[in-house]
Amino acid sequence: MELDVFVKVVDVLTQNLQVSAGKLQIKSVLKRSSQSPELNVRKSVGDLTRRTSVCPAGRHVTAAEALQLGIIDEVTDHNAVDAAVRLAQSVAGKPLDARRISTYPCPRPPDSDVVFEKVMQEVRRDARGAIAPVTCVQAVRAAVALPYAKGMEREKELFATLFTSGQARALQYYFFAQRAVGRWSTPSGARWDTSKPRPVRKAAVIGLGTMGRGITVSLAQAGLSVVAVETQEKQLLAAKQAVTGMLERGAKRRGAPLVLDQIKYGRSVQAAADVDLVIEAVFEDMALKKSIFQQLSRLCKPGTLLCTNTSGLDIDELASQTQSPELVVGMHFFAPAHVMKLLEVVHGPRSSPEAVATAMQLGKKMGKVSVAVGNCRCFVGNRMLRPYVMQAYFLLEEGATPEQVDQVLEDFGFPMGVFKMSDLSGLDVAWRMRKAEGLVLPASAGESARIREGSRYSPLGDLICEQGRFGQKTGRGWYQYDKPGGRVAKPDPWLHGFLEEYQTRHGLAARRIDHQEVLERCLYALINEGFQILQDGIAAGPEDIDVIYVLGYGWPRHRGGPMFFAGQVGLDKVLQRLEHYHQVHPDVPALKPCSLLRRLAASGNPPISRWREILQKPRSQL
Ligand SMILES: CCCCCCCCCCCCCC(=O)CC(=O)SCCNC(=O)CCNC(=O)[C@H](O)C(C)(C)COP(=O)(O)OP(=O)(O)OC[C@H]1O[C@@H](n2cnc3c(N)ncnc32)[C@H](O)[C@@H]1OP(=O)(O)O
Ligand SMILES: NC(=O)C1=CN([C@@H]2O[C@H](COP(=O)(O)OP(=O)(O)OC[C@H]3O[C@@H](n4cnc5c(N)ncnc54)[C@H](O)[C@@H]3O)[C@@H](O)[C@H]2O)C=CC1
């Protein structure tokens, strides 16, 4: 049973005493506790200023912390019901009035308005558009300002507003979507309930750059022995230091033992000979990956699963380099890999059900939500990211700045706009992809610099990589950072000058672009690709795409995910806006509405739960 579900908080007889089974977690808020978060605030309004405050953040607290906070009366490792009865008996017949919240005096500090304004600002900033945390503060404020009964009344009204909001529907949808992706199946017949995963005790990670480090940390934290391989001495040293830091911070945060000893570092893939599973995370270069898969296939013990963290290369082509293509799957993690909860498990046409099930299960063990996806260029998440990123580049060409585009996306609710996110991942990754696709032309390309195969193309990403600006890792990208590896993005005057010079060189007139256009062009291009992915059968359903976006890229959960969001906006409206933008930019195929979107819009904007039916209906041959 899930730990945080297993916990029992028994509201005993009087409904005033609570007992919690030990060591586990409970999700606050508990209304009937003797010291609810509301009461904490009544006692000390300032408590709420903590960013980690239980109430607006919906933070999970351990049973021990709940005891300390006074939310519960007792923690037990034994039968919670027995303990509850014992506790009830110990107070039976004694007056319990002193425990009733309604009887507590509620001092109102003179500066409470100032404090609440400050709290509200902080909560609003962290909530990134989610209304529940903000409403929480309003309820607490009412509890402080009004008599008890009136405060409760106000809370009821506020709750009713939340309950009937679009955000509540999005959150409920998302809750079930995340559960639904656990019941995965693949066209080749692999299924969550019939395909048996293999045990994996020892794993290897090949390549300890941005991704390999975080993957190593997640594997070790999941209790596996890890062989971590990096050929570059300097990278290896930096990786050891980074992995150690992540593990130390993680152990401190989770109150868990430090697992440094579980990792052995090596300079050659030979070190992976006796592992059960390998995750390759070297540069995004097909030739390099192929040679590594050939080596691994020769040296690993029979039955070893060979996985790749590629961002979008053909899994089947890699599988064809090995003696056992059925043991090859994609395990695509997201940056920062020890933090982001998503794992795309990419099944090639030859991946065995057992291999898919093993990768899915291992992802879960690593604390990720595994989503099974089909094999195509860039899979699901990154395939949708391409038109999103390309629109962002076009917007720069037309007069926007990275800061403006990012601000719009962050106001929408992303933790990072597209340019900050790209700087985090490393701009060289997509540059390598584009080079391999023949999209990168020499600087002397002239007229053709902005056209590829008759369609509009922006070389901006290529040009800044040519300057050695790979993002956070080099300390310069779309932003500047105080040092290589720095994380605080600052606007870069060099970049602004570069954009102006680029516009002049290509005869582009910068214009003022409003927020709505930025948002619509970026998001609707991404969503349009999502419909194409559904139509191509690469994702099993819209829920899979939504979970990928919420957990892989920080799409705001209270907006349900891109496909749910499209439904909430109205498919006819999304269609109409895409048609508009495609008319304005006819040389951008990504803005041409996908036929599935047209069909769904023509069916009258059906609820997302009915999309699969329409998807499966044979199309008219007329
Ligand atoms: C033709 C067109 C070309 C376009 C091509 C496009 C194709 C696509 C190719 C793209 C390249 C490949 C990318 C890929 O395959 C898939 C990806 O991974 S895309 C990236 C997805 N990730 C995101 O979108 C991240 C979004 N951001 C967030 O979720 C949060 O901001 C973040 C979790 C990073 C931080 O949240 P915050 O609350 O601020 O965190 P904390 O401060 O609490 O720290 C938590 C943890 O995270 C570490 N961290 C924080 N900030 C950063 C950072 N900037 N860089 C790295 N790590 C960071 C922090 O240190 C903490 O970890 P500890 O170990 O505990 O210290
Ligand atoms: N950066 C990102 O956000 C994401 C990247 N990926 C994918 O993960 C892979 C790695 O990407 P990054 O970590 O960003 O790259 P990176 O450039 O940060 O790291 C790659 C590492 O591999 C090492 N390496 C190269 N050849 C090697 C070999 N033969 N043996 C051992 N190590 C070798 C390099 O020295 C380097 O340290 C790529 O396929 C990329 O597409 C996947 C998800 C997200």
From TrEMBL:
The pathway it acts in is: Lipid metabolism; fatty acid beta-oxidation
What reaction gets catalysed by this protein? (3S)-hydroxyhexadecanoyl-CoA + NAD(+) = 3-oxohexadecanoyl-CoA + NADH + H(+); (3S)-hydroxydecanoyl-CoA + NAD(+) = 3-oxodecanoyl-CoA + NADH + H(+); (3S)-hydroxyhexadecanoyl-CoA = (2E)-hexadecenoyl-CoA + H2O
Residues annotated as domain 3-hydroxyacyl-CoA dehydrogenase NAD binding: 202-375
Q: Which GO terms describe its molecular function?
A: (3S)-3-hydroxyacyl-CoA dehydrogenase (NAD+) activity; isomerase activity; lyase activity; NAD+ binding
Residues in 3-hydroxyacyl-CoA dehydrogenase C-terminal domain copies: 379-481, 518-605
Q: Name one GO biological process term.
A: fatty acid beta-oxidation
Question: InterPro entries attached here?
Answer: 3-OHacyl-CoA_DH_NAD-bd (IPR006176), 3HC_DH_C (IPR006108), 6-PGluconate_DH-like_C_sf (IPR008927), ClpP/crotonase-like_dom_sf (IPR029045), NAD(P)-bd_dom_sf (IPR036291)
Keywords for the protein's UniProt record, in alphabetical order: Isomerase, Lyase, Multifunctional enzyme, NAD, Oxidoreductase
Q: What is this protein called?
A: Enoyl-CoA, hydratase/3-hydroxyacyl CoA dehydrogenase
Q: Which organism is it from?
A: Fundulus heteroclitus
